[in-house]
Design brief:
four-stranded antiparallel sheet; Cysteine desulfurase; 114 residues; Amino_acid_metab_prot_put; three-stranded antiparallel sheet; Lp2179-like_sf; alpha+beta
Length: 114
């Protein structure tokens, strides 16, 4: 999956774009880690029950020049992409995803459009 200027996950209500006022130090302040190739990566476990270790992995990667990014939600193994936005399923996990993304929007890392 290539780095994109904007990302819409399948069946998600919003499209996310990189904020024009994004800063590298803001990424580090928000627990993004810098990879060996210089990209910035955030990984979170989306779980219905906290600390149950039963859920899906969210991975957000921004390239090193902050011009593109990827968002992946995978199963626990990290190998298979998962659609958490299917109608009638994973309401708690969807809410946790939206909460995390809204916090990143509030910190000028992303912008969102309906």
């Amino acid at each position: 999956m290539a780095f994109e200027k904007s990302v819409t996950l399948k069946d998600c209500d919003f499209t996310y774009e990189i904020s024009p006022s994004i800063k590298k130090y803001t990424l580090r302040d928000n627990t993004f880690e810098q990879t060996a190739v210089g990209n910035f990566q955030l990984t979170r476990m989306l779980e219905e029950v906290p600390n149950s270790n039963q859920g899906f992995f969210l991975k957000i990667i921004l390239n090193k020049d902050l011009s593109g990014f990827k968002i992946n939600i995978t199963d626990k193994s990290g190998l298979k992409l998962v659609n958490i936005f299917k109608e009638g399923s994973n309401k708690v996990i969807q809410e946790k995803f939206y909460f995390l993304m809204d916090s990143l929007v509030d910190r000028d890392i992303f912008t969102k459009k309906a």
